[in-house]
Amino acid sequence: MYAFMNEKQRSNHSLGSARLKSSEGLPGSVRPAAIYTHGLMSLLVAACIVTGTVPLLAQETPLTISQAVRRALDRYPAIRVSLEQVSSAAAEINLVRASYLPRADFVAQLNRATRNNVSGLLLPQSVISTVSGPVLGPDRIANAWGSALGVTVSWEPFDFGLRKENLNAAEATRMRAEKGVAVTRLQIGTAAADAFLTILAAQHSVRAAQAGVDRARVIYQVADAFVQAKLRPGVEASRMRAELALAETQVIQAEQSVKVARAALAQFLDMPSPDLSIEPGPLLQAPPNPNLSVGSLDEHPRVQEQVAAEEEIKARERALERSFFPRFSLQGMTYARGTGWQADGTAGGIGAGLGPNTQNWAFGMTVTFPAFDFQSLRARKEIEIHRERAQVGRYDQVFRELQAQSEKAKAALEGARRVAENTPFQLEAARAAEQQSTARYKAGLGTIVEVADAERLLTQAEIDDSLARLNVWRAMLALAAAQGDLSPFLQETGK
Fold first, then answer.
1. pLDDT-above-70 percentage for the chain
2. pLDDT, greater one: 71 or 494
3. 222 Cβ partners below 8 Å, 6+ apart?
4. 48, pLDDT greater than 60
5. What is the biggest distance separating any 2 CA atoms in the chain, rounded to whole angstroms?
6. Per-residue b or e along 267-277, where b marks 16 or more CB atoms closer than 10 Å to that residue's CB
7. CB-based contacts of 41: which residues, under 8 Å, 6+ apart?
8. With contact defined as beta carbons under 8 Å apart, do 335 and 148 qualify?
9. pTM across the whole model
10. Could you give the 3-state DSSP secondary structure of residue 31?
């Protein structure tokens, strides 16, 4: 090992050895641990130099399909988006609850203005300021200080159930958002599990295609030897070379499929695809119980989401029904004003009006009734009625789609199970045919076409046999997704 080191590495190795020797006279309790560490590291580095390998300090642990699904549900952005929508709906509930509280408005003002006032009416607007006091003499540009400070508290003691219905509508919106989270989780979990199975299928295709390349290369060497010996025409070697090139192309395509599938799964797991490592677990074998229990579609997240959407619209309809009622507001106010103007129109001192010096208070109830809002409320209610009917139709559509999806998944599962039972016989027959055709060709009794056909048949049989078991798992996944719950499928994969 020392002979394979360069000069610098030999120097480091000698230095480490010298340090070890210098510490041999020290008691074991006081001998520095770093000396042992340095020696072990030197041996490790030397071993790496000799073998040409580099130790992996950290490696991603292979993920099972259950772990991949859980990781996707924890990290995929669509889940966070749905959860934030639920939080937003919950905040809307707090906003509606705030309407039960009294409202207090505070105001403070300081101005420097003239005192000119005119008699007459002015329609409500937001530009011209009002001036209190009598009309005094001619127009003047003299000015003085003015100030004001006040507070108004208003509260609606009863509202004929309007705030309660608005609160129910907000709760229905939050419930619909929560059901949407369940739908998103089901979709992401299903997609991640399907991507996991796709990787396994692609990897099996690579292995079967590579085995086909190895067999084609052997037959090509035999055919080429026959051609070189003038025992076979040259077209047979060319034909087998073409078969070998076709098999190599299949390997390239299968490897490409593996990379694409890894990228698809890595997208859900928030990790680089080269770092992705999966653990097949029981997925390479036929499932012991391919028939999952089938429950009611009423509990499917998509169905529940549609029910919540209908309830949300009905809650808004009830709130509109409570909107055409008088509004009672209990109000109390107090304020103080200060002005630098005297009753005769003369101005006070330089600081007059800077502080409020005249106070008022009031207490009472105000009743408002939007008499002409009837038509607009009626139109808004009609809009909600049509939206409710649309949601009812969408509910029927979703339910029928799920029924059809469930029936298709059951049929696919039954077909995949029967195919998985049949492919071993297909593979056994294909292997026998390949062996027989190869033996006949070597004995000069068969043609290269027979061998090429048998090779392709065997490669396809190997692929079909490996994918047949995965297709059973994939059909089970589709059935679980159609039922709206992946837990039974994940439990089967964990056995």
1. 86
2. 71
3. 441, 442
4. no
5. 135
6. ebbeeebeebe
7. none
8. yes
9. 0.71
10. coil
